[in-house]
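Need the bound structure for 5-amino-5-deoxy-1-O-phosphono-D-mannitol, inputs here:
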Amino acid sequence: MCGIVGYVGMRDPIPVILDGLQHLEYRGYDSAGVAVVHPAGIVVRKRAGKVAELVAAVAGDQALAGSTTGMGHSRWATHGEPNDVNAHPHTDCGGSIAVVHNGIIENYAALKKRLQARGHLFRSATDTEVLAHLIEDFRKTAPDLLSAVSAALREVTGTYGLVVLETASPGVMVAARLGSPLIIGVGDGEQIVASDAAAIVAHTRQVIYLNDGEIAEIKADAIRTTTLQDVTITKEIEEVTFDLSQIERGGFAHFMLKEIHEQPETIRNGMRGRLRADEGSVKLGGLEHVQERLAKSRRIIFLGCGTSWHAGLVGEYILEQIAKIPVEVEYASEYRYRTPIVGPEDVVFAVSQSGETADTLAAMREAKRHGALVLGIVNVVGSTIARETDGGIYTHAGPEIGVASTKAFTSQLTAMSLMTIMLAKSRGLSAADARVLTTELAAIPEKVERVVAQADEIRRIAQVYKDAKNFLFLGRGANFPVALEGALKLKEISYIHAEGYPAAEMKHGPIALIDEHMPVVVVVPRDAIYEKVVSNIQEVRARKGRIIAIANEDDHEIGALAEHVIRVPRTYGFFGPIVNIIPLQLLAYYIAVARGTNVDQPRNLAKSVTVE
Ligand code: M6R
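Answer from helper R.:
Posting the output first, comments after.
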């Protein structure tokens, strides 16, 4: 989604801003722009397309030189098509106030009408431009920029993370947040504000997280934070822990491939210090203070979107079977609008890689409003969901840059598996059974390594199917969500239409699609329902469908039933998805590469969806 970088200090802001925008590219965007403050006016440059095009366009541009305050933006279009004019920054009538904005101004149409009636001249089709004109109006009487922006924002309905500059205040940035993240990097004689720490860590690790409803006046050597009603807020400086090397490709062709290969390590990191395999015990610091309420809860509700929702579905199988707690899994975007029945007896987990997904945030706030205990399973430390929940589990997968989520998924499953063992023990699981489970879980990273090592073989299979028009993914039990996730990975990055189904559900409809052109990926581990899935495979074969089986290393029958077999190590049933998803990630990746798509930044998609 949209990205913001602002700079005030002693340096030329343009290199800092462009570098920051490049570090935000993974979020997904379609145009970009920069602005710097000069006493004679604000200079703005904007381009549809990639940041590289903006970089080329501003190279050697003397009009941008000589300033020490500036900002940049990468836009993911909501209102108005992606073109030069609609790209941010947007300016007021006289070009002396400029705004970059993430989020949506919901009452922009009414505001625009009012401003036009007062003579304001609009140039773009965006909702953001109303902010520039609204601030222009208030600035006529406000004592300073911060007061003018506060007054304007009091009239706004919607969400925003924004930065405002004006010619009258060189050396000042005003930043405000409601529902869209903003972080201030505190440097030595300079400050960098950004929507994501990835744009900041090259310069400083000391950061201030703005909260909803807060506005900050940022100067090179001072930051003043207030509410929109001018109540002063004292902010703490926190430290960001991730390394810049973590957000570089490290020799891999794509971030997605790097992140797939990182999984043995990221899964280990998720267990480190938490899992004692020999003792059969699990310790989750972020849940200790709520362990009793969790163990006694009426049910657990997982809220999430996309891959995080799929992780919740796997979690449902694991928790219900092992910990015997009823679980519901909800699309966050649906949950909030259907007056859910939820209360203090329930525990709600917001599941999110980014911790910034607008739908998930809104849904968990709704559950909180009804008195539920709201916890998080979150990857990004310090993200909004992490800060607004009453505890939870950090997944410790490290920064995930590829838009298609891979390592975040297996880390979410790892966190859910750990939590399951912990809860099951507090609800009567024997020490001996707990030891079996912890031993199984501890063995998973090595099993994932064995699957990743088959990348070349999976690439060969991908070549065979790269021109397919459709794909079907089938699985049963906890591997049904794996089928959903495999289909999501393929459609996201290869643009091939793909659907995931419970294998037995196929005969109730999708079977009509099967002919000799339909590849059908079946996850068929040797578990209690192996024979049932084999019957489903026979149904596909009878209609000439082309089977790609994800089967166990010791399955000697499957070769006769499938055109291709990808082998996975045998894994205790409910933890199997952590291993079984790996070949599907690799298959999607290599098919996308063979089709020449932009794997890490697929069309129309954003890494973190911060609008509804
Ligand atoms: O950051 P989140 O986990 O909250 O994101 C949820 C979805 O937007 C995300 O999983 C999306 O579906 C991915 N592109 C899947 O690969």
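Comments: The chain has a mean pLDDT of 95. The first strand starts at residue 3 and ends at 8.
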